[in-house]
Amino acid sequence: MEFSEGSNKSLMDKETCCNNNNGVTIRTAQNMSSSFMRKKSDPILVSTIRFRILRELLANLQEVILGTKLAVLFPAIPLAIAADFYKFGRPWVFALSLLGLTPLAERVSFLTEQIAYFTGPTVGGLLNATCGNATELIIALFALYRNKIHVLKYSLMGSILSNLLLVLGTSLLCGGLANLKREQRYDRKQADVNSGLLLLGLLCHMLPLMFKYAVKPETGVSIAEYTLELSRASSVVMLVAYIGYIVFQLKTHRQIFDSQEEVEDEDEEKAVIGFWSGFSWLVGMTLIIALLSEYVVGTIEAASETWGISISFISIILIPIVGNAAEHAGAIIFAFKNKLDISLGVALGSATQISMFAVPLCVVVGWIMRIKMDLDFNLLETGCLALTILVVAFTLQDGTSHYMKGVVLCLCYAAISACFFVHKIPAPLDQTNVQSGLNPSLSA
Known about the structure:
The chain is mainly α. The chain has helices at 9-17, 29-34, 44-47, 52-64, 76-85, 90-119, 121-130, 134-145, 149-178, 188-214, 223-252, 275-307, 311-323, 325-336, 340-368, 379-395, 403-421, 429-436, and strands at residues 184-185, 400-401. Strands 1-2 form a two-stranded antiparallel sheet. This is Vacuolar cation/proton exchanger.
């Protein structure tokens, strides 16, 4: 394993050659947002250690583990594992796992950014663009593996709603209040691209739902089968659109997203760990995220029953808020600094990635696993998603912002949260298991 310190000159040389023509490594808004949760380390603390390998190992531990303001939440990880091992209350396992996922999500963003310095701007940008919502995707895949389709759909839709209403709304509200005497403007081109993709994703989500209500089944014909086939075809279309979006963002129209790449502090542009070190840390943290995600998925019903809160509220509201806390805080800070292009990049970029990549990917993976995952998110959920995208599209149409726009978006999120808080309808777990040919007891 290769370890390197931030002061190493060879590391700086490698970093310089991996920059684009403007001297800036391509970074997404999500990574820049998470950078506000980081804190600089003091190399003097480990420079006095005699053994080089031990010194470099401790330097990496200092950068990766202690290099975030969320480091105080890392003890939740061993506590969650101990709670599961010693058979503590399952709601405790759920709560501790959620807390442990918060710093891990920020650290994955940090590690992908570090690796991007050595892979070149295109590959690095692709890494950042596809790993921005790694935590939500891993949770969704574990829910798919356990055949908890309702948890999967709720959590993914909750991430979209959280980004579009809570993150964007809070950013516009705080930014507007902090800049009352200055006009806040942003580039509409970026917002238009993301809005178009979100509307395409909404169309693909609505088609199975409309098909289910519009088509009357003939004798011996199951509408569910046709809905499933339509969902799989639509998912392929969505994945193709997302690939086009990546090419558009990183290659053909990169200048539209250049405003996201401006960083005031030059220290943020320097890699602090080596490539193989960052890769090893990334693999290790991904495995820990997978373990905690399995705990979250496996204990969500117990937490819902104990706390008296519906599964839909936990999945749609609580999990997305905790999973993206660092990224969301950074977006708000950028809005305070009147850099709305970055705040919009965080909110719209994350929502687009979930809608056009994570959701169809789960459908395709379920197709491979012979699990009947479709795009039918039911009437209530799809209606909330449709109205959210329309409200956001109208809010961003003029290229200017003020705090009242943030108030409207935040209140929309509050209304939707209240809706799912009182949504006590049991999740269709048994029906899902029967459709997939599984024993209900195996997915509990």
